[in-house]
Amino acid sequence: MSQQYPIGTAGTPWGEAEKSLWLESQSIKRSYSELVLAEIQALSKLCDIEEYGTLDYQSRTYPLLAIKNKNANTELPTILVTGGVHGYETSGVMGALAFAQHHMTLFTDHFNFLILPCISPWGFETINRWNPNAIDPNRSFYSDSPAQESLYAMHYVNQYAGNIIAHIDLHETTDTDNSEFRPALAARDGKINNNWNIPDGFYLVGHTQKPEPDFQKCVINQVQKVTHIADADDNAQLIGVDIEQFGVINYDATTLGLCMGLTNAPYVTTTEVYPDSANTCEQECIDGQVAAILGVIQYLKNL
């Protein structure tokens, strides 16, 4: 299904005028300070908190915070958790925070944890996929990135001294992907939009360069205990990509500039929760994100 976006001319990529019109149409809908920063600060007795950058957008300042377990043992491997690369994908942010609050200290005898719960705070406040410059941070994890969100996260993680063995990046696929974000992307790039079928349920995106199917299966099995897994469509695909196994597709994260590809960790995955499903709720989506992290831990403990 094709849908014309209200900004721009069909077939013509946006210039600065169109990007400015798009930015003017955005508005603050919720508070990063109240919903994210306050929750992070409340973890100060459990975790170490570090500021790894600051974003200044539209006269608003957004400190970027990372969470680490206290008394890290440098001999242990590290699990990296990222959320809110797309700010509108709420359960990723809340799932990362919930894991830090309720579960992280249970596993620090085996692993260190590095958690960046909300990489795109302006996107979180405006419920947006892009940053104010109409750039998708999750297509911008590469050197000389045009997205400050991606650059700050990459620099911070690259300076981390520990051995990152796994990286789980927490995302959602929503109905607004088809109603707003894919039409906007096509308009921005001067292309024809063709919406995809939104999978009803949780699924994973593995890395084609290191797919690790047993690892992905362990995560799916853990998530399946708390929420339903998306079935493939009639073409044996999810979002237009052939399935590798139940609930799993693969992308080349490095080539596409995805957050999942920002480290050399051997075990990586991106979660995708469907919060608009009639078969789930907000808390279940958060629980699914936490379960995915627990699935990563379970697999690594059994290596």
Automatic annotation (TrEMBL):
It comes from the Bacteria. Pfam families: Peptidase_M14 (PF00246). PROSITE patterns: PEPTIDASE_M14. Residues 28-299 form the Peptidase M14 domain. SUPFAM superfamilies: Zn-dependent exopeptidases (SSF53187). CDD domains: M14_REP34-like (cd06231). Belongs to the peptidase M14 family. This is M14 family metallocarboxypeptidase. It comes from Pseudoalteromonas obscura.
